[in-house]
Design goal:
2 copies of one chain form a homodimer. By secondary structure, chain A is of the alpha+beta class. Helices cover 39% and strands 21% of the residues of chain A. Chain A is built from 5 helices and 5 strands. In chain A, the strands form 2 sheets. The first copy, chain A, has a 3-stranded mixed beta sheet with strand order 4-3-5, covered by helices on one side.
DNA sequence: TGATATATGTTATGGTATATCATAACAAGT
DNA sequence: ACTTGTTATGATATACCATAACATATATCA
């Protein structure tokens, strides 16, 4: 599967499709995609840059939502916990999931110049990581790959 | 290569060997392994659990070092920047590197029960991650794998 | 309806990290 | 000796990230 995020595409339909997909999954799984939760998802979808909780909070505030930190964190925890968004630990920031319909190990390609983020999929089960874990008797429940580097748009433009 | 950290071993010699190795590398590479830096490395080596900067700071303080946050962060940045330690983003914490003599993509196996951490080595270049990056034209400069799960010592003991 | 669970509002606080400015220590050039 | 460059420390303040705790409201279902 291809990472998205470093190619131009139609954000409008991209956002609409993702929201529809998440709504459908919530309905199927008995999850409540409340107003705030959906709005936070949309805010994340509107960028391919990772957003900090306080950035999101600022947007919510401008729209008249209550804007104490827990409001953002609760919505983010809902989205992350159900696979609709991811937290990028390296940046203490969040992104909407690009592949929300399937279980996967996300691999983030983080451009250190423009700070855009693309999400790919890692296949750790065929990596030395899986062998290490097996040898050690360690059971992997969740995993993430975070790679920092330079995206094609910034390569050459800036060192 | 095997992860270490979930097997018992002789910490005393483990620490001594690591410190000697790092001292040697610093000498070769013209890096100054100052008193604080070495002490922080030793503090990290003394555990296989990740330590927060403020945990380290508390130890330093007890030993009479100056104990403002930048003291710990500067030493940690030196160690991380030169490959002698790693930061585990998921925990906002630091561990001494288990393979300080070679460039590698570290893969952390983090036990969510006992919070011990083992370090293995990932081979992303043969993972789908490398293909994704290549397709996207993204140049990976640094990467890390963080896996959360249950270690062999905790499996069965606690759900 | 009433009982239970889930979601939100709000205040306060805890934990992590860095910016900034000042100083020390030492090496190297003039 | 004097200046300059460089690297490491000391110290203060503040920015930034995240959650605890408790009250209130809304949904869901027996």
């Amino acid at each position: 599967m291809q990472p998205i995020g470093f190619k131009s595409h139609d954000h409008g339909t991209c956002i609409a499709h993702s929201v529809t997909s998440v709504q459908k999954q919530c309905a199927e799984r008995g999850l409540q995609l409340t107003h705030v939760r959906q709005r936070v998802l949309e805010i994340l979808l509107a960028k391919h840059q990772a957003m900090g909780a306080y950035d999101i909070l600022a947007v919510l505030k401008a729209e008249g939502f209550s804007a104490q930190p827990p409001v953002a964190y609760r919505a983010l925890n809902f989205l992350v916990g159900n696979g609709f968004a991811h937290k990028i630990e390296r940046l203490n920031a969040f992104v909407a999931c690009s592949h929300p319909s399937s279980e996967h190990v996300p691999a983030f390609l983080i451009c250190r110049v423009c700070e855009n983020v693309a999400e790919g999929i890692a296949n750790l089960s065929e990596d030395t990581v899986a062998a290490s874990a097996r040898d050690a008797g360690f059971i992997i429940e969740r995993a993430v790959v975070e790679a920092e580097g330079v995206c094609p748009n910034c390569d050459g433009a800036q060192p």
